[in-house]
Amino acid sequence: MDLVTHCGLSRHSAPYAWRLLATALSFALFGAGGVLLRLLVFPLLALLPGDALVHRRRARATVSRAFRLFVQFMFRTGVLTYEVEGVERLGRPGQMIIANHPSLIDVVVLIAFIRDANCVVKQSLWDNPCMRGPIRAAGYISNSGSLDMLDEAAAALQGGQTLIVFPEGTRTTPGQPPEFHRGAAAIAVRGARIVTPVVISVTPTTLTKAEPWYSIPSRRFHFRLRVGQDIDPQQFLGPHPVASRRLNEHLHQHFIKELAEDERSAHRD
């Protein structure tokens, strides 16, 4: 199993004031980078030769690289450490990646390690001045909650794309187990060749739904991403509503078990 890990330059966390400043710089950089991509980088990339598929792949590779640099910036400035297990199994044709959603940067870290991935994103981000450029250039799917969205996502998988979905739809409430909506499972049974669960844990918790960005923890946080074993969605037999309900329950129990193990490991450490 491939392991990408950056656990820090030393055992000691950077001072609180520095990490607060570095966090502010990180988000300022993220916003400015999104605007720069929209106004300068993607218009230049659009001038290069190639059909729509080539342009889309080029845009997604650019977003992935930009997100990788962002994660490295947060690491180098002492905001976080990170660990990614099983990264070599991400990015396969027709693969649906299902992840829990504990923090604001979950999708950033995932896309940073997948060069050509599609993603279901919140509808509100389509009009965000910092995010709309990368989202539209990369051809991500809007989470409008409509049947058209389900069909579009399933078609992307059937066409051989890798698709990232967060079944919770929003960040997990700290201290609560994840609650999965059935839409992700419905997409999987319609179009996925394989489903790969990715368990994300953030210790100590930060950048959650209940916290502003400046409410940083007392020490730099550790971001852990673990790629689980593949699931064949066709093993959940039955009409689509029945199959999606069975798959959703299977995934829900898997994540509850794995997150509980992560919490026990964190306490032991």
UniProtKB/TrEMBL annotation:
It holds the Pfam family Acyltransferase. The chain crosses the membrane at residues 20-48. InterPro entries: Plipid/glycerol_acylTrfase. It comes from the Bacteria. This is Lysophospholipid acyltransferase family protein. Coiled coil: none annotated. SUPFAM superfamilies: Glycerol-3-phosphate (1)-acyltransferase. GO terms for molecular function: acyltransferase activity. It comes from Pseudomonas benzenivorans. The lineage of its organism: Bacteria, Pseudomonadati, Pseudomonadota, Gammaproteobacteria, Pseudomonadales. Pathway: Lipid metabolism. Residues 95-203 form the Phospholipid/glycerol acyltransferase domain. Keywords: Acyltransferase, Membrane, Transferase, Transmembrane, Transmembrane helix.
